[in-house]
Amino acid sequence: MKKLWLIPTVAILAIGCNNATTAKTEDPKETVPSVTSKGPEATPAVDPGSVPAELKHEGYEYYGLGAEKPINMEIVSSAGNAIQTGEQSVKLKSVEGGKAIYEITRTGQLGQQLGNMEVRVEKDAIYVHSSPIATVGEKDIELPASLAPGSTWKTRTIVKQDGQTMDVTNDFKVEGVEKLKTKVGEYDALLVTSKGSGTVQGQKLRMETQSWHVKGRGNIKTIMKTFDATNRANTITIQETK
């Protein structure tokens, strides 16, 4: 059975922070947690049918919030680090005041890297609601409600992880729908790209991302390239896996 998954923008940037200054190959037998995160406390189930229709916009569909089954994913780095794997799930936490809060939880090495977080769905966009690794503003966009080709938006993200601080501004653009093949299947996927610049521990950093989103499934693949002050590149691929 094909599984659904999503990977939030702030999580992608966190992985970039963790890998931006990594040049050596780490021992694949050694796994060092980047984030220590406790699992969420049990809460009463919220009926997905209570989410207002006006919140089920394009952003909602392409972010994969209608899916509730756990997923498997992997993180591969060109730095030679061992492949990171884990399971991710999304759960509707609350619906109030015309807004819906979803909780994203992760296990295994994925959880060690990223911890858990929450996103908030409003009429105009999906926003980061809370994160253990990033400074969250009132309107930090994950995906806007409308995703017409050519649409653009800007974000500023501050990530603090493993004693490092990354402050980066990204310009996002919707490129359009194209064919995409992963280890799980083939899709018509919406490509969203970004170009950003900022600093890691005061050192200049720039990055480029390509993220493919499938309607009703979520962000099934992302390729991120980070470039340090010497223009040395590191590539990280995050994708669904069987």
Describe this structure in words.
With 242 residues, the chain is mainly beta. The protein has a single domain (9-34, 42-240), classed as Beta Barrel (YmcC-like fold), CATH 2.40.360. The chain is 10% helix and 49% strand. It is built from three helices and 13 strands, in the order ααβββαββββββββββ. The protein has helices at 9-19, 58-63, 108-114, and strands at 71-77, 84-96, 99-106, 117-121, 125-130, 134-135, 141-144, 152-161, 164-181, 186-200, 203-214, 218-227, 233-240. Strands 6-8-9-10-11-12-13-1-2-3-4-5-7 form a 13-stranded antiparallel beta sheet. Strand 4 and strand 5 (125-130) form a beta hairpin. The longest helix has 11 residues, at 9-19. It starts with 8 loop residues before the first helix and ends with a strand.
Features:
single chain, 242 residues, mainly beta, 13-stranded antiparallel beta sheet
CATH architecture: Beta Barrel
Q: Give the total of domains.
A: 1
Ends: how far apart?
9 Å
Radius of gyration: 17 Å
Q: What is the helix content?
A: under 10%
CATH class: Mainly Beta
* Beta strands, count: 13
Largest beta sheet: strand ordering:
6-8-9-10-11-12-13-1-2-3-4-5-7
In the predicted model, the low-confidence regions spanning at least 5 consecutive residues are 1-6, 21-40
Counting helices, strands and paired strands, the structural category is mainly beta
- Count of DSSP-assigned helices: 3
Strand percentage = over 45%
CATH topology: YmcC-like fold
Q: For the residues shown, what is the average pLDDT? A: 83
Shape: globular
**Order of helical and strand elements:** HHEEEHEEEEEEEEEE
Report on the biggest sheet: 13 strands, antiparallel
